[in-house]
Amino acid sequence: MVTHSTYIAQDRCLRCGGFMVPEEIREVNQLGWRCVMCGEHIDPLILEHRRQMATPEGARQLIAKREKAKLN
Ligand SMILES: [Zn+2]
Fold this sequence. Notes:
Layout lengths: L19 E6 L4 E6 L5 E2 L1 H10 L2 H16 L1
Bound molecules: zinc ion (ZN).
Zinc ion (ZN) binds next to loops.
């Protein structure tokens, strides 16, 4: 039994406002969320990514990382 309420508070779809149901992600052994209305999928990695993008500093780092990947 995985407890999930402590690290994700995501019970409404950001896209359509539909009801989100917990969904097990076996690869990372964590719970994500799936919208029953439109199928929008949210997982801990996406949430972390959004949190980083929410700050100017985090967004800069992600963009810098992407630029570097392009060069390699
Ligand atoms: Zn939705």
